[in-house]
Amino acid sequence: MFIQYNNLDINFTIGSTRFRTLNIAYEHLHRIIPSHSHGDNSYEIHYVASGRGYITVGEKTYEITPNTLYMAGPHVAHAQISVQGDPMVDYCIYLRLRRTSSGEKKTDDLDRLFTEKTFWIGQDNCQIKNTLELLFRELKEQKTGYTVYVETLLRQLIVQMIRNYQGGKKALHHFKPATPAEAQDFIIEESFLYDYPVLTLEQLAERLGLGCRQTERLMQDIYGKTFLQKKGDARMSAASILLTYSDRSISSIAEELGYSSVEHFSAAFRKYYNKSARQYRKESRDMT
């Protein structure tokens, strides 16, 4: 079997380097690949999923077994041959690189880490096979967004290749924590998601690093609701779920949702849904 994609314009950038994918191939390798080398800025990644064989690089010979990964960079002469009766199943990605004037920030110099190796061979420890299988599936099926997915998978392949080089070395750059101002929406959503029974305006304001009045204005800007309205929505949503899908008493539901009494809960529920909690439970269960 031989599958090849060599007429596609697939480009992606890592750091200050533009990667252009000129050939993507999958082959049951019955033929001999004679000694050859690639030109300036050209790199070829091979992954052998199954089968056995040998690769010669200059005067050295390396045995290839399933899960062998190797990369040959510019001007590295190499040849490949399968063991008779057990042909290699070989994935091959051919790339040409070009430096750009400006690059992405905080990439751990991944492009440099990739290009500093002109040859590497070893067993894959980063599940490259899964990435390659997804890559060929996307190229075959061409579903919505496949061009973005293919570029993403190729970028992932470069990272996996580098991780194999480095053997678990830690990253140099990390994500910065978001400031309260940058994470305001999430802080509010998380607060009402987890703490809605007991959350106070003062507590939410403290989490946001704002005053109570500023917090109320922010609630209006984001939701068009006051703090108490938003808290009431969360409580009533939880109440409707508990009434429908549990056998808990109305008094225990009221207690869980932070109401001071079952009467307080019942009054709030009737005002919100225009019916009693008991009636709501009966009607919702009749419908399920």
Automatic annotation (TrEMBL):
Keywords: DNA-binding, Transcription, Transcription regulation. Residues 182-283 form the HTH araC/xylS-type domain. It holds the Pfam family HTH_18. InterPro entries: AraC-bd, Homeodomain-like_sf, HTH-like, HTH_AraC, HTH_AraC-typ_CS, RmlC-like_jellyroll, Tscrpt_reg_AraC-type_HTH. PROSITE patterns: HTH_ARAC_FAMILY_1, HTH_ARAC_FAMILY_2. It comes from the Bacteria. Gene3D superfamilies: Homeodomain-like (1.10.10.60), Jelly Rolls (2.60.120.10). This is AraC family transcriptional regulator. The lineage of its organism: Bacteria, Bacillati, Bacillota, Clostridia, Lachnospirales.
